[in-house]
Specification:
Length: about 60
């Protein structure tokens, strides 16, 4: 395995799935919205956004 393997917390994982399904409905800016809605840290919010992009097929990154 190459790179760093990051595990999402349950709440960050939930946020990623929610965001993948509700991308167009989510309030902007996304980081403050995800922090408030899911109780995430700024880092967790960004990781959730990246995971959401992966779920939606917008990146070639491996899980």
């Amino acid at each position: 395995m190459t790179g760093v393997d990051h595990e999402l917390s349950d709440k960050a994982d939930e946020a990623a799935v929610w965001l993948a399904v509700n991308w167009w409905k989510a309030e902007r800016p996304l980081v403050p919205f995800l922090r408030k809605r899911f109780g995430l840290t700024p880092h967790e919010a960004v990781v959730s956004m990246r995971e959401s992009a992966r779920i939606r097929g917008l990146t070639n990154e491996k899980p």
